[in-house]
Amino acid sequence: MTSMQIFEFDTVFPKADGVNGNTVPPKVFAWLEEQCLTPDVLAPVWMKLTSRRGRRAIQFTNYVGVVCAPCGYQIEILPKIGRDTSVKTARNNLIEMLKCLRSFRHIKTANADLQKQQMPLLEVFLQQFLASARDVVKRGVRSDYSTRQANLSSLRGKLLIAPHLSQNVVRRDRFFSEFDEFTQDRAENRLIHTALRKTLGMCKAPGNQRLARELSFVFADVPICTDIARDLKRIRLDRGMTYYEPALAWAQLILQGDSPVTGTGEHNAPSMLFPMEAVFEAYVAKHLGTQVRQGFNLRTQTCKHHLVSHKQQDWFRLKPDLLIEQGTQTCMVLDTKWKLLDSAKGNSGEKYQLSQSDFYQLHAYAHIYLKSPGSVVLIYPWTESFTQPLPVFDFSSSNDLKLWVVPFCFESRTLLLPEISPLGLCLYGSKTCETVEGTIR
Fold first, then answer.
1. Would you state the pLDDT for residue 430?
2. What backbone phi and psi angles, to 5 degrees, belong to 376?
3. Taking the domains of the chain in order of start, what are their residue ranges?
4. What is the pLDDT of residues 38-53, one digit of tens each?
5. What whole-number distance in Å separates Cα of residue 93 and Cα of residue 121?
């Protein structure tokens, strides 16, 4: 199985003589191009068709993860953190950042294992599911009572009169019965078995294939899901079944997916892609939660207010990424942005590469969520061109409302706070970040 590693916003070309840069086999490029040419509603948001120097090209956007072509060729899309981020560091950092996403909270792979094996990302994800399914088998596949109906040679449970009379009018040796059977055929086991069968067709690593076959054999008596959405709603973890949670979380991700997946056209291929904004937001929220000072509380994805009311209806929900509260009072509104700033471009034309729409957004958050003078914060990733907080911004509409633009350091896993600011009243922070090339932990 062949694969390549690129960074977000990179461009790929079809492999041909005289073509430099990131190239993929012609049939892989043709398949990617087919995805881009689908109708607007179905077109993937994680790549777009473009041209470079008169040649057709595919540019990927801000989604990271792995794309798999029907032929098995894999494209790993890694986060770009700084100008000189290495592939090895980016892969390890992506795995650690994905652990903060709810769907990937069960990732257990150590960075040392990744560096040693250099396993493709998709195989890493599948390996995690197989390990969690093996843990279920070791600790016991649970059974439950399930209601059955069958035409039996002896009465079992209760007799169903109507079907019995219709089917056994000349068969007095038969009884159409409804009964409870203690069996492994329950929603949780069906989901795991179905995910194992799908994994068997997805994985290429010999170790993963062998383990998938072994586990599929263990679940052989459990039927495959006929309605995945229905079985997901039927999940019921009884007492002592918490060890099922990792396997079911992975099974849901594999069977249903929480991200855009490749799947238009004649062929469908497994992919796992995630918007880098969501990955960065989850990573910052996890580590920032440990840096809030005593007496303050960090809340994520609060959405209790709307921008306007119209005809007794609330419109345009205001949903900041993070809030810091003291009791019932909101002290600070924070929003994460996965964009690269440049502190050297502070003139009126380039404005540090900041977006005007981000300022409008924070201004709306402040007027709704802050009932007294306070601060709003924009959090961007630390890079070699953005190593220190920017000078404070004052809103023209209010002299008491301040906006701070601060970097989040991946090495120390903290916000870099200004020397003098009200942010330090709520948060512990760092003052410097030596390098972004260290491994995130």
1. 66
2. -120, 150
3. 3-139+188-275, 289-425
4. 776 566 788 888 988 8
5. 12
Contact between 58 and 50 (Cβ < 8 Å) = yes
State which amino acid sits at residue 308: V
Q: How many CB atoms lie within 10 A of CB 263?
A: 14
The residues, any chain, with a CB within 8 Å of residue 219's CB and separated by 6 or more, are: 141, 184, 189, 192, 193, 196
Which of 13-27, 74-88, 200-214, 396-410 ranks highest by mean pLDDT?
200-214
pLDDT tens sequence across 129-160 = 999 999 999 999 988 777 777 787 787 777 77
In tens, the pLDDT along 346-359 reads 887 889 999 999 99
Q: Is the pLDDT of residue 69 over 90?
A: no
Two structure tokens written together for 226: 């006929």
Nearest Cα to Cα of residue 189 among 222, 217, 215, 216: 222
Where residue 231 falls (left for φ over 0; alpha for ψ -120 to 50; beta otherwise) is alpha
Parallel/antiparallel/unpaired status of strands 3-7 and 11-14: unpaired
Q: Tell me, what's the pLDDT at 432?
A: 64
- d(CA 158, CA 178) in angstroms, rounded, equals 5
What pLDDT does residue 257 have? Answer: 55
